[in-house]
Amino acid sequence: MGIDELLMVALMPVLKTLLIAVVGLFLAVDHISILSATARHHLNNLVYYVFFPSLLASSLVDSISAANIISLWFTPVSILLTFIIGSALGWILVRITKTPQQLHGLVIGSCAAGNMGNLPVIIIPAICAEKNNPFGDSFSCSRNGMAYVSLSMSIGAVFVWSYVYNIIRICGTESDGNVQISSTISKNQSAEINSSDSSREELLLKGCPSSQDYHVQPTFVLKRSEDGVKVPFKQHLKSLLGKIDLRMLLTPPTVATVVGLLIGVSPLREVIVGGTAPLRVVESSVLLLGEAAIPSMTLIMGANLLRGLKRSGVNLWMILGIILIRFAALPVLGVVIIKAARDFGMVGSDPLYHFVLLLQYSVPPAMAIGTITQLFEVGETECSVLMFWNYAVAAIAMTLWATYYMWLLL
Fold first, then answer.
1. Which of these CATH numbers, 3.30.470.20, 3.30.70.420, 2.60.120.10, 1.20.1530.20, describes 3-178+196-409?
2. Which residues cross the membrane (predicted)?
């Protein structure tokens, strides 16, 4: 295949995602206001509690089995590497740009966590549907591709809702703690805090802690004792681990991932999956709910980008830094890592699997980061701006990287 054909194959799924996102953006404008803030809030709850878990569970049950899960062992390793490398680069970025303390978690999380959910789920089937795709016939390509993407999506969701959730929470609450200790709260600040009581009560009803719940916790800063001796690092580490909310490991996406994997690799799969399975109606119902996740998530993504379009008072260097990390540094390192893994025989010989692994390094930040910032009311405006510019650049960057990946794997 020529480079022009590969470019068209890579461009079609990106355009499809953009068109749906534009519809979401249009529905969110003030004159239409179908996807208003309240509507997005309720739709986001449906996605988080119903649609996305259904998509994860149905995809894993249908495509993962005891026979193929062992061969996909490198998937979690690759995702872990994206988070480690992205976090390290994000930490360097916050130091260089002198990012405010409360935004450290947002910047590091945006560099570490990529959108391994709705974008690959749209991109892979769309590429497979192209007649001249480089990965074989459409049916086999879609079936195998969904197995790879489902596992990536599930593991990525676990990392986002455990690691990124906690790092944004910790950085946000540390900032709150510093303000509480170093200054006296004015009457205006007290009024603002009181006005947010209803929001915090709503979060508590959902079982989600708000940033105010943690304002009395000690800040994670290097302190000295009265005699001038530094507090040991072990004590700081213990303080940090004590702040990690392990309850977030039991989020609906995580539970759905575990259930889907257990059913997929167990004999129970024969009872649920297949045209003659006794409980096939259960799989069909869950699959029907899961099919609503992708359009809903993409509409929300487009609607949320409207806020970023309206507001531009964010550090330009912080935006450029995240864009360079996500669309330049990570993809280049990803090519090196996957090429080395392929040379050592760690990822098998399927080029489609290699393509999915490479795609993990070149996607924009996970949209779930926006949901997390809304939960803790930390960096919501900055997150909207970051997401807008990253997804605007992704339209071009992902097309070019996908074209290069396919050329590299031919």
1. 1.20.1530.20
2. 6-34, 46-67, 73-94, 106-127, 147-168, 318-340, 352-376, 388-407
